[in-house]
């Protein structure tokens, strides 16, 4: 490289470092912790509510899951979950509501392409790999557990 190219490269690096947004790691971690904790608190409140209604622990777990998935999907559908995600970052990816968001978001985005090639084909574009590897790894762990306990 000649001298002029090196000067341009150094100037570009200097400018890009000056203009790059500063990391707000501590603030982002606090926001993620608070919002993730609030989501979990809401789930626990529903758990207590269903237990107080007299449901068994197994039924309560099912109803809490259904309720949290519904809330996550509803908030995604009306555009609120994206705002929560912008504020909380990783704190909004609490497994059950984050999973609902990862299913509903692509479905909304690709709705204009039709129900088969849009919604049906793209609905699991984000959650699909999670399901595949989650199910696959649970099968492997189950087989290993089976042979260990023989």
UniProtKB/TrEMBL annotation:
The keyword Metal-binding does not apply. The chain crosses the membrane at residues 61-81, 87-104, 124-148. Keywords: Membrane, Transmembrane, Transmembrane helix. It comes from the Bacteria. NCBIfam families: spore_V_AC. PANTHER family: STAGE V SPORULATION PROTEIN AC (PTHR38450:SF1), STAGE V SPORULATION PROTEIN AC-RELATED (PTHR38450). This is Stage V sporulation protein AC. It comes from Clostridium ganghwense. The gene is spoVAC.
């Amino acid at each position: 490289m000649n001298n002029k190219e090196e000067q341009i490269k150094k100037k570009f690096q200097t400018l890009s470092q000056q203009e790059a947004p500063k990391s707000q790691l501590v603030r982002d971690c606090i926001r993620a912790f608070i919002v993730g904790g609030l989501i979990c608190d809401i789930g626990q409140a529903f758990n207590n509510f269903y237990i107080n209604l007299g449901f068994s622990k197994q039924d309560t777990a099912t109803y809490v899951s259904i309720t949290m998935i519904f809330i996550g999907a509803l908030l995604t559908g009306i555009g609120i979950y994206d705002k929560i995600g912008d504020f909380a970052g990783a704190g909004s990816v609490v497994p059950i509501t984050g999973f609902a968001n990862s299913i509903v978001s692509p479905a909304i985005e690709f709705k204009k392409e039709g129900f088969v090639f849009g919604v049906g084909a793209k609905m699991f574009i984000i959650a699909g790999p999670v399901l595949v590897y989650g199910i696959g790894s649970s099968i492997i762990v189950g087989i290993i557990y089976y042979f260990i306990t023989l």
